[in-house]
Amino acid sequence: MNAIVEQFDRLWRDDPRRPLLHLPSLSTTLTADDLQQTQRTYGAALAAAQIGNGHLIVSVAGNRSGFLPLLLAAWHLDAAVIPVDEDIRDEALEEVAAAFGAAAIVQARGKGTRGRHHLDDLLGIEFRPRDTWRRHPGLALLKLTSGSTGTPKAVGVPVITMINDTDHITEALGIRPCDAQIGVIPLSHAYGFGNLVLPLLLQGTAIVLREAFVPQAVVADARTYHARVMPGVPFMFQHFAAHPPPDGWPPSLTLLISAGARLSPEVIRGFWDRFGVKVRSMYGTSEAGVIAFDRGDTIDGATSVGWPLRGVTVELRDDEDVPDGYGRVFVRSSAVAPGYVTTQGLDSQLSEGFLTGDYGSLAADGQLVLAGRVSSFINVAGRKVQPAEIEQYLRAIPGVIDARVLAAADPVRGEQVAAVIAGNGNLSRSDIRQFCVDRLPPHKVPRVIVVVPAMPLTARGKPDTRALQALVDDANVG
User: Fold this and answer.
1) pTM for the whole structure
2) In whole angstroms, what is the distance from residue 232 CA to residue 219 CA?
């Protein structure tokens, strides 16, 4: 049986009344026994459909109580789960399910067009045509990540890799079984999964779960449940520094973790000056788990993401795209996944370690300082956006000749999506934006739009990246 399931079963047997999932919006708390009973209900439905032994379930459960028992139910049957964002559109959800041969899609009832059969009052399930099912032997989790072509790509994760990553996280960050964590980041993201879901399942660390970030609710929840830990993203902490709670910062909430996007020294300093609590940077990837964490107590204006975790080795490798004085970050650890899932199964290209898309340097005291991205991903408040995907939509607009998507600076989200569009004079920025709003999740909609008669090109006839960025930067300032 799955070792995570075995560990949760031990937690349940030792203390079935242990409170694990606080749901303030429903004014209820679920115990280990509640989660165990729900997973049995879900498991019975999955088993009746003959799902198990490597089959795949797409979870669109969101930050709801059913997310955790669905995992347990799938893993009891040795099935795998691929969590996806709730804001995924139907056509993209279909593409994910088809690409990886899902046996079923589980979604909140009333959301989208899925959930034709009821699992319970919260979740519905759609069973896929049996001749499209694929098995993923040896894998418990597929983590969606951005591919270079905009097509679905997933990291294949065995149980032992998740356990190793959780061990690294709980030891380095000091997350204890007796803690309560504020859960407002998506459980479907690698960050929320690693920092919230797995510590609950493996050591009984409770979550105060909300479907979205509401500042007043975070403060109230921390006080009510004496929460000590909050994994967040930079704009959350920037908000609190700019708009402090009227009654001050909750005294119990002292372990503040920021990941998913760059945490600026200004936010760290501003938060410290307001509340006397340090927001700590954490750095990780879907492929390698958590890599580094700022365990220091100084507030010195440094831009590091902290020290590599114990058991994690970071090397800086030469690369033609890396600026002088820096190296491309290469990671070895027992938390690095073995590879990506392809139509032929699991490849093993990560077996020796993971070469990230980040470049940086190591300070004299061993801290890792990141200096930029090798890849073209745009990081919008911790959500990675692949430009190729947005460009496909933009090129479908009548009158558009070509489109290029790149990043523009955003003081709140770190980066925002920008687009340079070549086309006829009838194109308006408002029409382009509305076209995207109607078809894309909010974080993928271009906020900066530049319309030009022709795309700037280099002497070799390729898009002139520097000229494009200059157009975007000028428009962003304006």
Assistant:
1) 0.82
2) 13
